[in-house]
Amino acid sequence: MEQWEVSTSLGTTEAKENTSSQIVNRSCENLECYMVLTKAEKTAIGSICFLAGPITLLENALVLGVIAATASLRQRPSYLFIASLAFADVFASCFFTTSFLFFHLFRRSDGPTAYLFKLGGVTMAFTTSVGSLLLTALDRYLCIQQASSYKVLLTRRRAVLSLLILWSATIFISFLPLMGWRCPTVLTPPCSRLFPYINQVYLACWTSFTLVLLALILCAYALILWKAYRHESSMTSLQGAAGTGQARMRMDIRLARTFGLILLILVSCWLPALSFMLADVSVVLTRTQQRAFAFCSTLCLVNSAVNPLLYALRCRELRVALLQLLQRLCEIGRCRKSTEALSPGLPSTEDNNCTAITEDETPGNRTTGLNSISEMVNNQQPNIRQ
């Protein structure tokens, strides 16, 4: 009798588990259990994507165009890293915006292969973006720490090689689920509650890898600030009382404010989404937490929109190159208008004056100034040696 009761209870438990699994499978049909946004949330998040997506695409495409059109910028490793960052953010704006809107707003579900391909593109774009930020931080650290041998240590060939390694590694890591490392139970545990078909072990590995990249970025900028503080302290001791009476702001304070802003934006945009990913590995997320993650993931797109303003357009050389490019385009437009207005047989003085403006002839290149944050430190080294 006891054995019958035990077997009956076990049978009831198994029946409940089978029933619950059937309910989960039925609710996840066409990935509906991952489409958790309400109508108001769709409007808010859709507005962010429709606004940040095109802005991110235009800003980063502009940076890529300026670097590609300027020979002096293409030869420098610093701008190669910035170009890699802009290229990754262009991918992020395309892949993330389209896949996110089609899935969460228009509720269009794809098969496992199509979905994992789109997710792999988003993962590749964001991972390469963070990796390019790390290379940019390491470039600035080397420029300050090894100022005398910087050009020997970081050549253009080594910069291109590091970018090839970065892109190859991120592409391989991002498309591992498409190549077979996916959830064995399709849509039930141990699958992720944030991404369909994604194994929790893979999600934990990718999140840990991204956190390591962010930690290395923080360490690099902390070392830059420490080096800048040492330079400023040595200058103050050499200049004496005359130097302390200057009205200008200390260089290390300016660097602290700049890097503080960079790190604040980076952590604020990435840490919330990564926290939800780590929680998804250890606990079962509720629908409210899933909706919160959908909002936090759009902050990664916002970070891609802010990156050109922080890393590219703050550089004086790139701004000068942008103005030169716009000036050349205006001159070409004036030439075309003047030639169309005049008869073909008559020479024009405007045509003779319409020549391409080279970088050496523009007044912008004769001006002196700080081209990047790292040069704020390097330009003070001769004073220290004196």
TrEMBL record:
Transmembrane spans: 44-67, 79-103, 115-138, 159-181, 201-226, 258-279, 291-313
Keyword GTP-binding found: no
Domain G-protein coupled receptors family 1 profile: 59-311
Entries under PROSITE patterns matching the protein: G_PROTEIN_RECEP_F1_1, G_PROTEIN_RECEP_F1_2
Record GO cellular component, one term: neuron projection
A molecular function (GO) term: cannabinoid receptor activity
InterPro entries tied to this protein: Cnbnoid_rcpt, GPCR_Rhodpsn, GPCR_Rhodpsn_7TM
Region (Disordered), start-end ranges: 351-371
Name of this chain's protein: G-protein coupled receptors family 1 profile domain-containing protein
